[in-house]
């Protein structure tokens, strides 16, 4: 039985910051962000948007009533949790009116969480071929004003419907993983923003890739010649490009072929920024919607990396007619986001929900996004469907 990705949806908050404006405000050469990091804009989320609203919006864009009746598992991968106990998936399950007899959970391992969710979904469908699993990657990446990671922030969610006989991509059974206990990027419970050893994290990203790829080649007998494209975790686009260059080593022909596809695979990431666990799947969506070269039967190699660190290499093969499940004008939709000044972005960055003594917040700003946080009532978050 073929199992894989049947549908993919995406949602970003309605605000965007131009990194050229950020560079000027921080007295940095704009080319450091544009050429040095290969990034041009980043998505910014107001306090009425969180991993629940973004995840629900990404999923609502793809689900039919039949899907909602067949889904019996909702998995949210995230490292921007809104609660230490209750899973964001439970809120999303309710907001989307998914049939009640479902399992709803949250998975965490930095940017790797949703990839683990995808594997779990695949195993579940192997056991229950008539069911469908909703896997959502949803995150808000905030490093701090004027911090080293500031230009690599972002926010957004990718939703994937996993099923038997999928209409976009069959997931192959060739996954290999690596776990390496390192402190390259982490966020203690008492910290609002992550702690990051920037240079070390970039080295570990690449070293985990090359060593895991060597293992993948040994385990599967496959090589880069078997793949039409590669999608990597994209904390910022230049990092992905360096990863690709590292595994192509001295094979210039393969590097040139895969680099062409890579540029198609970062079109959305360049204007959204790091969305942590969803970045690799946003890259897949970007590849599928922007490549004129890919065709059914082509295989795509994936490198998922989550700091801490866990990584996975796996692959998928495109299905006949996959392009019918995609959107043609997504970049135009992204161009409609409201462009913030640096002062507006900084104000949003520091905005916090002000609770009274009883844990209530009722006067949150109006938000006309499809899903929004409406109020907090005795420490309970209440969402509105618009
Ligand atoms: P930095 O010190 O600000 O920048 O840190 P830099 O000095 O390393 O410069 C960056 C690049 O810009 C360099 O390119 C410069 O040469 C170039 P490279 O040599 O590396 O190819 N540059 C210029 N180019 C053109 N014109 C100019 C110019 N000036 C400089 N004028 C760093 C960069 C990535 C460390 C920082 O942004 C950071 O700490 N980011 C956050 C951490 C991160 O993203 N790490 C990535 C790997 S870890 C990961 O992916 C996991 C993660 O997603 C978290 C998770 O798993 O949950 C982060």
From TrEMBL:
Keywords: Transferase
Molecular function GO terms recorded: hydroxymethylglutaryl-CoA synthase activity
Domain Hydroxymethylglutaryl-coenzyme A synthase N-terminal as annotated: residue spans: 2-164
Recorded superkingdom: Bacteria
Matches recorded under Pfam families: HMG_CoA_synt_C (PF08540), HMG_CoA_synt_N (PF01154)
Classification via SUPFAM superfamilies: Thiolase-like
InterPro entries: HMG_CoA_synt_C_dom, HMG_CoA_synth_N, HMG_CoA_synthase_prok, Thiolase-like
Amino-acid positions noted as binding substrate in the UniProt annotation, renumbered to this chain: 148
GO biological process: acetyl-CoA metabolic process
Hydroxymethylglutaryl-coenzyme A synthase C-terminal domain location: 179-253, 259-348
Active site: 79 (proton donor/acceptor), 111 (acyl-thioester intermediate), 233 (proton donor/acceptor)
NCBIfam families in UniProt: HMG-CoA-S_prok
Family, per entry: Belongs to the thiolase-like superfamily. HMG-CoA synthase family.
Protein name (Swiss-Prot/TrEMBL): Hydroxymethylglutaryl-CoA synthase
């Amino acid at each position: 039985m073929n199992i894989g990705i049947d549908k993919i949806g995406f949602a970003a908050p309605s605000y965007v910051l131009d990194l050229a404006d950020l560079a000027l405000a921080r007295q940095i050469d704009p080319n450091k962000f544009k050429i040095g990091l290969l990034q041009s804009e980043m998505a910014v989320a107001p306090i009425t948007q969180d991993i629940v609203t973004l995840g629900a919006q990404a999923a609502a864009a793809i689900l039919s009533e039949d899907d909602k009746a067949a889904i019996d598992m909702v998995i949210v991968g995230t490292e921007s949790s809104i609660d230490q106990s209750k899973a964001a998936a439970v809120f999303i399950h309710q907001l989307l009116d998914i049939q009640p007899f479902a399992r709803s959970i949250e998975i965490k391992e930095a940017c790797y969480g949703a990839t683990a969710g995808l594997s779990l979904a695949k195993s579940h469908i192997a056991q229950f071929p008539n069911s469908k699993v909703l896997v959502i990657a949803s995150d808000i990446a905030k490093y701090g004003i004027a911090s080293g990671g500031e230009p690599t922030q972002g926010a957004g969610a990718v939703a994937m419907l996993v099923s038997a006989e999928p209409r976009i991509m069959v997931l192959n059974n060739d996954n290999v993983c690596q776990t390496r206990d390192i402190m390259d990027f982490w966020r203690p419970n008492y910290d609002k923003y992550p702690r990051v050893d920037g240079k070390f994290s970039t080295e570990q990203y690449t070293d985990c890739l090359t060593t895991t790829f060597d293992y993948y080649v040994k385990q599967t007998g496959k090589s880069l010649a078997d793949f039409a494209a590669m999608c990597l975790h994209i904390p910022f686009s230049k990092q992905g490009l360096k990863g690709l260059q590292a595994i192509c080593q001295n094979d210039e022909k393969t590097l040139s072929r895969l680099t062409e596809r890579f540029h198609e695979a970062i079109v959305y990431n360049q204007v959204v920024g790091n969305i942590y666990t969803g970045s690799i799947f946003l890259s897949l969506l970007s590849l599928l919607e922007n490549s004129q070269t890919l065709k059914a039967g082509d295989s795509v190699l994936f490198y998922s990396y989550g700091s801490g660190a866990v990584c996975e290499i796996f692959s998928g093969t495109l299905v006949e007619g996959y392009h019918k499940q995609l959107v043609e004008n997504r970049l135009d939709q992204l161009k409609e986001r409201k462009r913030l000044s640096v002062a507006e972005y900084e104000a949003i960055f520091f905005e916090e929900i002000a609770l009274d003594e009883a844990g209530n917040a009722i006067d949150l700003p109006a938000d006309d996004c499809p899903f929004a946080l409406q109020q907090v009532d005795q420490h309970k978050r209440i969402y509105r469907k618009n």
